[in-house]
Design brief:
This protein is of the alpha/beta class and 301 residues long. It folds into 2 domains: 2-95 and 282-300, NAD(P)-binding Rossmann-like Domain (Rossmann fold); 99-273, Rossmann fold. It is 37% helix and 17% strand. It contains 12 helices and 12 strands. The chain has helices at residues 12-19, 34-40, 57-62, 81-86, 99-115, 117-125, 151-162, 186-192, 212-217, 235-244, 263-266, 282-300, and strands at residues 2-6, 24-28, 46-49, 68-71, 90-93, 143-147, 166-170, 182-183, 195-198, 222-226, 247-252, 271-273. A 7-stranded parallel β-sheet has the order 8-7-6-9-10-11-12, sandwiched between helices. Helix 7 links the parallel strand 6 and strand 7 (166-170).
C-alpha cells in the first residue's frame, strides 16, 4: 500500500480519482506549517502540493519513505529541489494544466487596467458616480510586451492578437512561432511597450528582473501585469514607480511574500491586487489535479 499525502487543496475530481486506486492510502491534510509537515511526512510515499505548502529541506530530511513530490501547477519554487535531488526524491509538476486559466486572467487584468474596471467598481460601491474620472483606453493597436514566451506567454499572445494588439516578446531563447509577434531585446521591450506582462519562473537570474533600472527604461504611464511570481518584481521599486506616475496601473496577482503584508502597495489606488488567483479556475485545477494523480500512478504503481 502506497501512502499519499495531499497537502494543499486540489480538485475534488482528483481526490476521487486518487481514492479509486486500491493501492493508494490517501490522506488529505491541508494548511500545515513546516513543523506540522515535518511531523506528518515520514510514512508517506508521495505528496501533492500546490503553491501554499513549502517542501523545505527540513521536510525532506524528515521524509523517510518519500519517493515523489508532485506540484499540481507550474512553479517549483516552493520545493527545495537540491535537497530532494540529494535524497533521490523525484520532483515534478503539471506545467500545461493551468495554462489557459492563467492566460485568461492575464487578459482580464489587462482589460481591467486599461478601462479602470476595479477602481470604478469600488467607486460605485462607495455610492459615487464618477464617470469622467475613469476614462480609459482601448487595447486595440497598443503594444504589448510579453516577458517569457513559453506556454502561457503564447496563449496570452493569441488572445492579444485577437484584440488587434502589436506584440513584442522577450525570452532567453530564440523563439519559433507562427504567431505575429516580434522577438526583441529586454531593453527594447521595456522601452516600447504600452503594457508589459510577465510570464517567467522565479530563479536567481529573474529575481527582481523588474526594478528601478528597468522602470526607468519604460514609457511614462506604462501598465505592468505580474501573474508570474512575486519575486520577479522589486515591490519597493514598483511602489516608487506608481507614486511617480511612471507606472499608470499595476495588476498584481503574486507577491514577494505570500500572504502579503505589503499593504502600502495593496492599498495604492492604481493597483489591482489579487491573492494569487492565476491558476484558480475550476477547469485548470481539475486538469492539474488529474494530471498529478496520473503522475503518481506512473511512478508509484
Amino acid at each position: 500500500m502506497r501512502k499519499i499525502l495531499v497537502a494543499d487543496s486540489i480538485s475534488p475530481l482528483a481526490i476521487d480519482e486518487l481514492k479509486k486506486v486500491s493501492e493508494f492510502e490517501v490522506n488529505v491534510k491541508t494548511g500545515m506549517n513546516e513543523e506540522e509537515l515535518v511531523k506528518t511526512i515520514p510514512p508517506f510515499d508521495g505528496i501533492i502540493v500546490r503553491s501554499a505548502t513549502k517542501v523545505t529541506s527540513r521536510v525532506i530530511d524528515a521524509a523517510e519513505n518519500l519517493k515523489i513530490i508532485v506540484r499540481a501547477g507550474i512553479g517549483l519554487d516552493n520545493i527545495d529541489l537540491e535537497a530532494a535531488e540529494k535524497k533521490g526524491i523525484k520532483v515534478t509538476n503539471t506545467p500545461a494544466a493551468t495554462t489557459i486559466s492563467v492566460a485568461e486572467l492575464t487578459m482580464g487584468l489587462m482589460l481591467s487596467a486599461v478601462r479602470n474596471i476595479a477602481q470604478a467598481n469600488m467607486s460605485m460601491k462607495n455610492h459615487k458616480w464618477e464617470k469622467k474620472l475613469f476614462m480609459g483606453t482601448e487595447l486595440y493597436e497598443k503594444t504589448l510586451g510579453i516577458v517569457g514566451f513559453g506556454r502561457i506567454g503564447k496563449e496570452v499572445a493569441r488572445r492579444a492578437l485577437a484584440f488587434g494588439m502589436k506584440i513584442l516578446v522577450y525570452d532567453i531563447i530564440k523563439i519559433e512561432t507562427d504567431l505575429d509577434v516580434k522577438q526583441v531585446s529586454f531593453e527594447e521591450l521595456l522601452s516600447n511597450s504600452d503594457i508589459i506582462t510577465l510570464h517567467i519562473p522565479l530563479t536567481e537570474d529573474t529575481r527582481h528582473i523588474i526594478s528601478e533600472k528597468e522602470f526607468n527604461l519604460m514609457k511614462d504611464g506604462v501598465i505592468l501585469i505580474n501573474i508570474a511570481r512575486g519575486g520577479v518584481v522589486d515591490e519597493k521599486a514598483l511602489l516608487n514607480a506608481l507614486n511617480s506616475g511612471k507606472v499608470k496601473t499595476a495588476a498584481i496577482d503574486v507577491w514577494e511574500k505570500e500572504p502579503t503584508d505589503n499593504f502600502e502597495l495593496v492599498d495604492h489606488p492604481n493597483v489591482i491586487a489579487l491573492p494569487h488567483l492565476g491558476a484558480s479556475a475550476k477547469e485548470g485545477q481539475a486538469r492539474a489535479g488529474l494530471e498529478a494523480v496520473k503522475i503518481l500512478k506512473e511512478n508509484l504503481l
